[in-house]
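To the team - iron/sulfur cluster complex, inputs and output below.
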Amino acid sequence: MDNEKISLPQYDIPEDMQHAIAVTTLDRLYNWGRRSSVWPLMFGLACCAIEMIAAQTARYDMARFGMEVMRPTPRQADLLLVSGTVTKKMVPAIVRLYNQMPEPKYVVAMGACASGGGPFKEGYNVVAGIDKFLPVDVYIPGCPPTPQALIAGMIKLQEKIDKQSYKKSRWYDKKKQDANYVPVPILGPDLIDPRRNEEIRIAAAKRENEG
Ligand code: SF4
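Output:
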């Protein structure tokens, strides 16, 4: 299927009319528009972000995919590119950014860290993959993935968007209120809860006095 064209291939439109007429479906038209103008959030976490920045340079030309406009605000972005190590401290901020993005929205886990913790897996401060918190659409392997790998991931995302139907897509489920809302994680015993600092300080002082 040639997705660069809106017309459905099974309709033979006379050659002299092809510049003026297209026969298509609403889904195809909608997906074609969405896939060709995915705006990533200008947001990076660690070393992978450098490769993400490199992918935006003239050499790789993300404008070919309509993805050259990185937005500095989640309100105008529809792609969260998680590029780098996800620390426990950053998770609430990342989820909050995701919740602030308008729908339909997509998440790409770029690199080993965002996909599963990478070399820091099981570290005291690192989350073993952003998919524990957000629905990830595409995983890009590598440490770090090259800009070419990122582009391959973007093409996979486009292929995924091509298959969406606005009738079935979870974004338009009117029966479910806030179907896509992801609760912002509260820093707890496993993470770090700064609200418990006082409690911890008192417990530590008590233990010291006892010892
Ligand atoms: S996957 Fe590798 S390059 Fe990417 S953030 Fe982790 S350590 Fe850095």
